[in-house]
Amino acid sequence: MNKRRSFLRQAGLLSAGVFLTPAIISCSSNTENAEETATAEADADAATTETASDAVIGLQLYSLRDQIKAEGIEAVIPKVAAAGYKEVETYGYSKENGFWGLDANAFNELLKANNLTSPSGHYGLDPYLGGGNEELLQSYIDAAKTIGQTYITIPYLGDNLRQDAAGYKKLAQRINEAAKKVNDEGLKLAYHNHDFEFKQFGDTTGYEILLSETDPELVKMELDLYWAYRADKDPVAMMQEHPGRFVMWHVKDMDKNDKSLNTEIGSGSIDYKTLFSKVQAEAEHIFVEQENFAAGMDPYKSISQSHDYIVNNLLNS
């Protein structure tokens, strides 16, 4: 998939081409050409704005886990669409329970009915990474393909798998093996971080091991920006050092008074304007995620506020 800025630029050029080509063929006057050029530029700007606001912002559904439990996924998904989102990232799939009680086909129909797509899902891979369970990985592949996902994303690593540098090296090899299988099925594998990966082991960290010892062509990264900042890392420097690796982002803000709390994008302490201005083109998909909400905050209002802030203040900044 084209990087965001490149895609928007191409969309503008293509739009301009639609209007300019007839003028060139008919050898229109300079005035006519100028008018058509102005029209093309206006339409290109409109296309860029529409693409930015309608096509790129997703929601990690974990943000609404309590609402899903209380209301059911069939009630929650329309509200996600109403908040402006066009993509969702799933979590918690199992062959027995599907996606919150819906099998993959039924969940896919629910997404389609609400004009949503799901490019990525979080799938718990500890049993596979710990030494086997090929059937589990295959079940995830089947589900992801059914709902049109591109990425199977590893969301977390159990404590027993990451005790030391040697453990991370073993994990890197298992992740490579999973990535090959996933790639053979026409999908891609990604890894989502927290902050524990940045723990030092001598002169390295678990995250550095995962970055250096997994195949960069097969294993992509979903960078959780909040957790990177929480670990005192510089996401901009990370992406500049490893271009093309960090294809997805989790965007959530940090409460100004309590780092352990999330808040709506633009309301916290993370300087997202600088980040977006420098490395926005690195992300294929941007997912809002909020793990907790302030007392009295309506989660649906919260996700809408975060969506609108990104669209109006950060995209193409």
Automatic annotation (TrEMBL):
UniProt keyword Isomerase, yes or no: yes
GO molecular function list: isomerase activity
Ubl conjugation as UniProt keyword: no
Domain of life: Bacteria
Keywords (A to Z) from UniProt: Isomerase
InterPro entries per UniProt: IolE/XylAMocC-like, TAT_signal, Xyl_isomerase-like_sf, Xyl_isomerase-like_TIM-brl
Domain called Xylose isomerase-like TIM barrel: residue spans: 79-289
Protein name according to UniProt: Sugar phosphate isomerase/epimerase
Phylogenetic classification of the source organism: Bacteria, Pseudomonadati, Bacteroidota, Cytophagia, Cytophagales
